[in-house]
Amino acid sequence: MKTLAILGGTGKEGAGLAMRWALRGYRVLIGSRSADRAKTRATEMNRELGGDYLTGLANAEAAAAADIVILSVPYGAHQATLSGLREECAGKILVDLTVPLQPPEITQVNLPGGAAAALEAQSILGADATVVAAFQNVSAVKLKRLDQPVDCDVLVCADDPAARLDVMALVEAAGMRGIDAGALKNAVAAEALTPVLLHINKTYGVAGAGIRITGLDDT
Length: 219
Ligand SMILES: NC(=O)c1ccc[n+]([C@@H]2O[C@H](COP(=O)([O-])OP(=O)(O)OC[C@H]3O[C@@H](n4cnc5c(N)ncnc54)[C@H](OP(=O)(O)O)[C@@H]3O)[C@@H](O)[C@H]2O)c1
Known about the structure:
Elements: E1 3-7, H1 12-23, E2 27-32, H2 35-49, E3 54-58, H3 59-65, E4 68-71, H4 78-83, H5 86-89, E5 93-96, H6 117-125, E6 130-133, H7 140-143, E7 153-156, H8 161-173, E8 177-180, H9 187-204
Parallel strand pairs: 1-2, 1-4, 2-3, 4-5, 5-6, 7-8
NADP nicotinamide-adenine-dinucleotide phosphate (NAP) binds at residues 8, 10-14, 32-34, 37, 72-77, 80-81, 97-99, 101, 136, 138-140, 194.
């Protein structure tokens, strides 16, 4: 089974994915700017899971030890977190689930220069890493309910079709349906959808609006 490192796995979105993957047998490393914070959060999550599943490390150590790296930090920390990790991510898939929100206007689309955080990630890491964009439209509130599948689809965008398939398998393991959504530049659409979902959450008084792709069963 592959080893996954979740940079910023101490936070809301990363923790839910970490626990779901750990329960499916992946070796999961929780990354943080602080190794102590990572260890503390891993201990807390292990207590919740009832076993010794997760290990906490500093972000760079976690990335170096992983087969697949997942980036789960706020957009404001995106560039700073990635720019020191080119070597650790070389030859690996980096799954970017960052949404470029601009607080306090989090219900309005705010794409960096009309592009996507995932495209910025590829440019920061260089061609040696394969960036895959996914999970931007999945609510952390839903991920936390470990005993339930999450009622949504996940758009998976990457320029490498094999990398898309690898990440679609991770999506399935976390309890959702992965959809091959094409090239990495299509991540613009997924990143832009999240503020729309946050607006819907606010308007309808819910915590986890998500998306479903219809028509896939048509013949
Ligand atoms: N929450 C959701 O429902 C949701 C849904 C879809 C997508 N996302 C996306 O997933 C990513 C993570 O979201 P989240 O809600 O998990 O965020 P979060 O809990 O606010 O932060 C995640 C982790 O990022 C690190 N971090 C925070 N500020 C930082 C900074 N200034 N510099 C470096 N690291 C920093 C922290 O880890 P350490 O302090 O341990 O380093 C923190 O635990 C975001 O890009 C978000 O847009 C979130």
